[in-house]
Amino acid sequence: MSDRDNVAIVDTSLLTDADWAEINKLRRAYEIDGSVGLSKALKKLASDPVRYVMVTGALFPDMIRNAIKDRMAEMGVTKDDLKEMARRLQPPPTKQ
């Protein structure tokens, strides 16, 4: 097992080129300084919350998904609330 395998991607389905660039930075940080370097790189990445969630979600999809669900439950957001938000975000039907 190489050092790169320690920053293994579990779910690549939603990753953008920018996400891959961040993943490569994490891998390099790990290769150079081990877990200390990886920890520092993750802290730096956390300054961009959206990218942080995308990248960590690719690394630890179950953990991130459950953390989001738990936080939403703490805030009182239900599945129906999410469905309503998604419905509001959809563009209105076009007239023909």
Explain this structure.
By secondary structure, the chain is mainly alpha-helical. The protein folds into two domains: 1-59, no CATH class; 62-91, no CATH class. It has four helices and no strands. The protein has helices at residues 17-45, 49-59, 61-75, 79-89. Helix 1 (17-45) packs across helix 2 and helix 2 (49-59) crosses helix 3 (61-75). The longest helix is centred in the first third of the chain and has 29 residues, at 17-45. The radius of gyration is 17 Å and the shape is elongated. The mean pLDDT is 90.
Number of domains: 2
Note the total helix count: 4
Strand content range: under 5%
Mean pLDDT over the residues: 90
Largest sheet: none
Query: Which segments are poorly predicted (pLDDT under 50) over 5 or more consecutive residues?
Result: none
Helix and strand succession? HHHH
**SSE-based structural type:** mainly alpha
Annotation keywords:
96 residues, mainly alpha
